[in-house]
TrEMBL record:
Entry-linked Gene3D superfamilies: Sodium:dicarboxylate symporter
Protein's UniProt name: C4-dicarboxylate transporter DctA
Keyword Transcription carried by entry: no
A GO-annotated cellular component: plasma membrane
NCBIfam families given in the database record: PRK01663.1 (NF002461)
Gene this protein is translated from: dctA
TM ranges: 19-38, 50-71, 83-106, 158-175, 203-221, 227-249, 340-366
Membrane topology: Multi-pass membrane protein
Family matches, as Pfam families: SDF
One GO molecular-function entry: fumarate transmembrane transporter activity
Compartments where found: Cell membrane
GO biological process: L-aspartate transmembrane transport
Major localisation: membrane
Keywords of the record: Cell membrane, Membrane, Symport, Transmembrane, Transmembrane helix, Transport
Amino acid sequence: MTETATTPARVRKPFYRDLAFQVLVGVAAGVLVGAFAPSIGHHVDFLGDIFIHLIQMVVGLIIFCTVTHGITSVRDLGKVGRIAVRALVYFEVITTIALVIGLVVVNVLKPGAGMHIDPSSLHASASATAPAKSEGFDDFLVSLVPTSAVQAFAQGQILQVLVFSVLFACGLASIGEKAQPVLDFVGNVQQALFWIIRKVMRIAPIAAFGAIAYTVSKYGLGTLLPLGRLIGVFYLICVLFFVLVLWPVSRYGGFSLLKVLRYFRAELVLVLGTSSSESVFPQLTAKLKKLGVDEPVVGLVLPTAYSFNHDGTCLYFAAVSVFLAQATGTDLSWQAQLGLLLVLLLTSKGGAGVSGSAIAVLALTLSATHTIPVSSIALVLGVHSVLSAAFVFTNIAGNCVATLVVGKWEKAIDRERLHAELDAGYAAA
């Protein structure tokens, strides 16, 4: 008689213990407090700040450990280079499509038409966001290389940390077995950092409450109405990107986009409240490995995606730039918009993924075009947090899909495990 091994069914925890549910409750409570008790909402933003600072405290080290451990464990620098090239080609193609979708939709629907805003009246409001100077492509390349590795970690420069991590990992891989003690140490440090993140995540609902309460109390629900068309158009653009780009790419990758979104639902809901993609990097790393993606692919593709695969942010830059041109009566010919697209392909790379950084990059972009008034950014400051919730959500979904697709190209996914996990849904250990 043959015994059939059975896998024990997963025990579902109560819905109220699910992090996604808790964060949603925090967001809802924040909206209520911000709208009906703004005096309290004005003073709880520190809750979100503390949470973001706790994540930023370790995210640089986590990227270093993840990249170093992933590359060094391969010991095949040719494979590392192949993964990197494939990932960068994927990122560039998808972000270009995102920019085109954003430009087309905002030109067709024209959410800023008829506003007739005089940009000269906005100079005082926007002065804080205007960049000191426009950086060229050569400046961007120079900024990739840190003058000090310690400074890169201290300032949270993700691209610089990534460059140092790759070089350090390649150096370790080149010395062969002698690198094993260092590799073991890095692996242990990584586990310790993930323990910290698991503890920090317990306060995520409180952080989301503080961030949303402050935003609503400061700008009010009514301030969203005049710019409602922009919000509606931008959310439509994000939906179109999911339907026209991420869904077909997921089909090509051999997995269900809806199941991927369900699997990462806690992280996606969290970024809706915090507008910070950094806050979920460690959890994405752990979950992608649990889905059966090989460590070298996760360790190289995901950190690189955080700097080069800003799908949602590209949608934001394209939509808001043209919206501001329409609102201020700035004439943008198709040649000017083509130039804008090329500028955005450069300025959209290397963002920190922290709430507010998109405003600085948008100012840099408008300054580089010499057509759209930089001061017009003041128009969208009141609704930036509403827009950022959508584009950070899109960024995270896009990065997860990108890692799975590159994993498929590299034949570095346990397909059986991937489908079993996606079908069952994520269950914490």
